[in-house]
């Protein structure tokens, strides 16, 4: 691995992180070397915190330190009741229908919050996106392996770190309960459609669910696929255009200009800390897909244990312009900078990029993912 001085001056962009999970260190963000943190909201407890953090740290400065993202993570999807479809609305009946196995422990059921209507979630997220013209939708997605945390024990409560934003697992033992995939997909699809309506990129969580994520996207893409011409068809089009006058070319370009009307799918998608094999990326990158799909990588998820070999193969197989870096860390400050430098160096080595070239490439990729 190269030991050249790291070129922070080119701009380094964390594509996915969670500093509002530890609000006590958010104040350290202005002193960080990283240019911009793409900060995810995941649940009811942190939507407002992400909003406040962006408002307080960005101010009127054009160089945003924080790019806010608003979304509902699949780990908390059971807390959403789909009021857009017929089905149980009351708390107990809702949880009995979306969790598997159906909870029979009254203590566990009592600790679950009153579910939030999906229509309210979408409306509130839309309002927040309007406040921030460049904000993303995230973190959203699907997770087949996640189990809900169990009830708090007296020992859990006694050892709880009060600096952590409530709502996460916080070391509790896991229960046997999972969220049914059908319900996770309903919550995901509603947020994907909102991102399409608002023309925003999304950050997607996927654990053992890459096929299900792709299926959800294909449902929204149906009827909107890009036309992929063969080489012969492209040559014929070029010959035909060559025979046109300049005025006719200008007119044709105007007619082909893409509409800015909203779509039922996001324009750009990041598969965050992508943990799947090489084969699915070919489906995500199919030229007919009307969304541009990026893949981000983190030290914690992608370069530890058995995942490392798979991540290396994927990174080598991706196009240069679809790779992003992230920390996926819940603590802002020097550790976040260090993790970003480490994953950037690893990717540059795998791609055979000279360090300054690689940092510039990754910066350009992030800007194109966020802004189009």
From TrEMBL:
<dbReference type="Pfam" id="PF01026">
    <property type="entry name" value="TatD_DNase"/>
</dbReference>
<dbReference type="InterPro" id="IPR001130">
    <property type="entry name" value="TatD-like"/>
</dbReference>
<dbReference type="GO" id="GO:0016788">
    <property type="term" value="F:hydrolase activity, acting on ester bonds"/>
</dbReference>
<feature type="region of interest" description="Disordered">
    <location>
        <begin position="230"/>
        <end position="268"/>
    </location>
</feature>
<feature type="compositionally biased region" description="Basic and acidic residues">
    <location>
        <begin position="246"/>
        <end position="258"/>
    </location>
</feature>
<feature type="compositionally biased region" description="Basic and acidic residues">
    <location>
        <begin position="230"/>
        <end position="239"/>
    </location>
</feature>
<feature type="region of interest" description="Disordered">
    <location>
        <begin position="153"/>
        <end position="174"/>
    </location>
</feature>
<dbReference type="InterPro" id="IPR053044">
    <property type="entry name" value="Metallo-hydrolase/TatD-type"/>
</dbReference>
<dbReference type="InterPro" id="IPR032466">
    <property type="entry name" value="Metal_Hydrolase"/>
</dbReference>
<protein>
    <recommendedName>
        <fullName>Cut9 interacting protein Scn1</fullName>
    </recommendedName>
</protein>
<feature type="compositionally biased region" description="Basic and acidic residues">
    <location>
        <begin position="157"/>
        <end position="174"/>
    </location>
</feature>
């Amino acid at each position: 691995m190269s030991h050249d001085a790291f070129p922070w001056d080119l701009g380094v962009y964390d594509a996915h992180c969670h500093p509002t999970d530890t609000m006590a260190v958010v104040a350290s963000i202005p002193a960080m070397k990283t240019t911009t943190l793409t900060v995810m909201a995941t649940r009811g407890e942190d939507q407002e915190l992400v909003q406040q953090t962006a408002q307080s740290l960005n101010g009127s400065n054009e160089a945003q330190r924080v790019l806010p993202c608003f979304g509902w993570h699949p780990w908390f999807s059971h807390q959403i009741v789909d009021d857009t479809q017929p089905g149980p609305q009351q708390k107990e009946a809702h949880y009995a229908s979306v969790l598997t196995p159906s909870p029979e422990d009254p203590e566990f059921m009592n600790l679950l919050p009153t579910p939030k209507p999906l229509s309210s979630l979408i409306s509130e997220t839309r309002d927040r996106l309007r406040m921030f013209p460049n904000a993303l939708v995230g973190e959203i997605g699907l997770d087949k392996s996640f189990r809900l945390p169990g009830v708090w024990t007296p020992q859990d409560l006694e050892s709880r770190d009060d600096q952590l934003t409530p709502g996460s697992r916080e070391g509790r033992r896991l229960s046997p309960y999972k969220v049914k995939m059908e319900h996770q997909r309903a919550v995901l699809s509603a947020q994907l459609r909102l991102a399409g309506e608002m023309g925003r990129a999304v950050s997607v969580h996927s654990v053992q669910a890459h096929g299900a994520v792709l299926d959800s996207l294909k449902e929204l893409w149906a009827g909107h696929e890009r036309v992929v011409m063969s080489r012969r068809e492209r040559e014929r089009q070029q010959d035909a255009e060559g025979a046109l006058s300049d005025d006719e070319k200008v007119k044709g370009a105007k007619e082909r200009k893409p509409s800015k009307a909203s779509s039922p799918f996001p324009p750009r998608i990041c598969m965050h800390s992508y943990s799947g094999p090489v084969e699915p990326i070919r489906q995500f990158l199919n030229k007919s897909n009307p969304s541009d799909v990026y893949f981000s990588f983190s030290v914690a998820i992608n370069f530890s244990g058995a995942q490392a070999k798979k991540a290396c193969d994927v990174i080598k197989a991706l196009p240069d312009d679809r790779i992003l870096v992230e920390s996926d860390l819940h603590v802002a400050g020097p550790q976040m900078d260090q993790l970003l430098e480490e994953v950037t160096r690893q990717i540059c080595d795998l791609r055979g990029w000279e360090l300054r070239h690689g940092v510039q490439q990754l910066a350009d990729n992030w800007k194109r993912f966020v802004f189009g």
